[in-house]
Write a structure and sequence with these properties.
mainly alpha, 2 domains, 4-stranded mixed β-sheet, 17 helices, 5% strand, elongated
Length: 495
């Protein structure tokens, strides 16, 4: 499904602003150099007139600019140094602008190739991030030099003031920031990891019935069972092949993560459909795709965040401002290129889940996820604000909220646009997924209800696990609330 006209207009406006920023700084450098050069030419001609009188016109015709006079060694070294610096600023601005535009054109071209051939997307994106990083480092250093020259040159030429220490500070701060950003972006080879602060690992001994269901679904899908099975407090399920950090340690291999509260509102058929959807990503090598694409995206976004933080902390880093749209452009275009493929992956997994447990099962499960996601945000928000002292356990609270919403005759407007969360991917909105299943939101809404026999019965220690994770959640969000009040960062969750 194509994007809406409004979304296209917003994307177009954002891209125009990005191109404007890329071009604006080089233009300002060029104007600064041109203004200084014009001022120096005026001073040079005035000096010639004062010194030579009637012969000045002849000299000015022969050497109309200070640069021409310096070329014939008619001016002193200090004067010619100022002329040379103004020329460097002008030409540097032009070169920087051309390099930036060239990079954007190359990245856009690579993104179009990736959109046509999704199998090449991770490789092309890594190349684009590498090229952007190296270009941003070079531009950042070059702009740092130009900015330092402008800071020293403009006050000296126009006002007779010299800010040498400020110019040196600009050079050092901006140069280091550019190099640091490039280094962060080039860490795309570093393995990605997922963090689950409120999760436990379930062994086959802990939940044999649930593992039997997972094995059965895996056999139907045609893939091996996951190496690890996690339960998390968040209303989110996913399958990944990256290390996952939980309070008790780090689990490795192929990991299936299920939502503890959602087991309370899902039937066994709905759970089987969700497991089938997630294991379909293993079967289709989608987790490998995400594992290769996500680290490069994480590196680009980390570099982008570093640049923004540096500029917000120190105005001397303004020279690296044009590097921000470079990383934004690269990440944005490849995320856009991957969106269509991501949508295909999710719809393909939904279709397999429908074959396994029925379209109604996966559809009602997805609707419940969308409702539970909003309830989770409200629950966590009440704990952070200190209004959740007497709240029931997470699963109970979310089950009550889901039941209350589903009792309404029609779904709220926000449900159709709800996206299911994922650590390294973005899912299509619920309305698109239901449409692909041949269903409408209103008919699924009428069929969705809380089951008499919830899937949580497959986990014997469900109450114990829920109490353990809820206690960790309350403690961490309480520390977050206190830290926010004191203006200090909260400590990380511990086992």
């Amino acid at each position: 499904m194509s994007a809406s006209p409004q979304a296209n207009a917003e994307a177009g406006g954002s891209e125009c602003a990005l191109w404007l920023l890329v071009v604006l700084v080089p233009v300002l450098f060029w104007l600064s150099g041109a203004c200084v050069n014009h001022h120096l030419n005026g001073q040079y001609q005035d000096a010639v007139r004062q010194r030579l009188g009637s012969k000045a016109a002849q000299v000015i015709r022969a050497y109309p600019t200070a640069q021409a006079a310096c070329a014939r060694q008619l001016l002193n070294e200090d004067w010619c140094m100022l002329v040379t610096l103004s020329t460097i600023v002008r030409r540097g601005g032009v070169i920087g602008g051309l390099v930036s535009i060239g990079l954007l054109v190359v990245v856009a071209n690579r993104a179009r190739h990736a959109q046509r051939d999704p199998t090449q997307l991770p490789r092309l994106f890594r190349q684009a991030v590498q090229l952007t990083s190296l270009t941003a480092a070079g531009l950042g250093l070059g702009y740092a030099v130009l900015f330092g020259i402008v800071v020293a040159l403009v006050p000296m030429v126009f006002f007779g003031l010299f800010f040498g220490r400020l110019a040196l500070g600009v050079l050092i701060v901006s140069g280091l920031a550019a190099l640091r950003a490039a280094k962060l972006a080039l860490t795309w080879g570093k393995p990605l990891s997922q963090r689950e602060p409120f999760a436990v690992a379930l062994s086959r001994v802990d939940a044999p019935a649930l593992w039997r269901l997972v094995d059965t679904v895996a056999q139907y899908v045609g893939t091996a069972a996951p190496d690890q099975l996690l339960l998390t407090l968040e209303p989110n399920c996913y399958a990944v092949e990256v290390p996952v950090q939980i309070p008790s340690g780090t689990v490795h291999g192929r990991t299936l993560c299920l939502s503890l509260p959602l087991l309370r509102v899902w039937s066994a058929d709905e759970l089987a459909a969700v497991i089938g959807h997630e294991l379909a990503h293993f079967h289709g090598a989608d987790t490998r795709y995400a594992r290769e694409f996500a680290p490069a995206l994480q590196g680009a976004l980390t570099a982008l965040g570093h640049l923004r933080q540096t500029i917000s902390r120190d105005v001397r880093a303004l020279a690296i401002l044009p590097c921000i749209p470079l990383f934004t452009f690269t990440a944005g275009h490849f995320v856009l290129a991957s969106a269509h493929y991501s949508r295909q992956r999710e719809l393909r997994a939904d279709a397999l889940a429908a074959q396994l447990a029925g379209a109604r099962a996966i559809a009602t499960a997805l609707v419940k996820v969308g409702v539970a996601a909003v309830a989770w945000e409200q629950y966590a928000g009440m704990l952070v604000t200190g209004k959740g002292e007497n709240l029931p356990p997470v699963s109970t609270a979310l089950a009550v909220c889901v039941a209350g919403e589903l009792s309404q005759p029609a779904p709220p407007a926000w449900v159709a646009a709800e996206h299911v969360g994922h650590p390294v991917d973005r899912h299509p909105p619920l309305s698109q997924r239901l449409q692909a299943l041949g269903l409408t939101l209103h008919e699924v809404w009428r069929q969705a209800s809380l089951p008499a026999q919830p899937a949580s019965l497959l986990v014997p220690a469900y109450p114990v696990i829920e109490h353990q994770l809820t206690t960790q959640l309350v403690q961490l969000l309480g520390l977050t609330r206190n830290a926010n009040a004191a203006g200090t960062p909260p400590p990380p969750p511990t086992a």
